[in-house]
Amino acid sequence: MYRKILVAIDDSDTSARGLDEAIKLARGESAQLCILHAIEPTALAMYPEAAAYADDLFELLRESGKQVLQKAAAKAARRGVKARTALIDNRGFPIAELIVEYAGVWKADVIVLGTHGRRGFSHLLMGSDAESVVRLSPIPVLLVRSPEGGVPKAAPAKRAGGAKRSTGRKRA
């Protein structure tokens, strides 16, 4: 079904879940896997005094990105999937546009992304690169939610002193 799978990662636990899913999918489909990392220098824009060091800082970001990609490719290799890697310098474009553009250039059949699955106010504040990819992409996008993105499980009710409340049922 899928011959070329693109997964975008950023070295977070959430993107690691997306990578894991992309590896499983590539292995099951005997597909090519491309692991993409975009250098995100937005932190530099917050500090105008950093402009004097921009080239050095970009080089540090590139080296860090290469390490992220090497680690991800090694993970894929340990699971029997050979992966190519791609590092993109993002100098001001929305990350979602870069992911979709790269998917088109590489002729990917599907894009895999980890997502926090935020809703409400936190989604309004932070936005979602994953949501933007879904809106822009002409190919299917598989979103893999992080555990914290799901509905939290209710903790068992406790009584004073830390003892659990009885449900009234007898144990057999």
Explain this structure.
The chain has 172 residues and is of the alpha/beta class. The protein has a single domain (4-162), classed as Rossmann fold. 42% of the residues lie in helices and 18% in strands. It contains six helices and five strands; from the N terminus they run E-H-E-H-H-E-H-E-H-H-E. The chain has helices at residues 13-29, 42-45, 54-78, 95-106, 120-126, 129-136; strands at residues 4-8, 32-39, 83-89, 110-115, 141-145. It has a five-stranded parallel sheet with strand order 3-2-1-4-5, sandwiched between helices. Helix 1 (13-29) links the parallel strand 1 (4-8) and strand 2. Helix 4 (95-106) packs across helix 6.
SSE order and pairing:
Blueprint: E1 4-8, H1 13-29, E2 32-39, H2 42-45, H3 54-78, E3 83-89, H4 95-106, E4 110-115, H5 120-126, H6 129-136, E5 141-145
Parallel strand pairs: 1-2, 1-4, 2-3, 4-5
Helix pairs in contact: 4-6
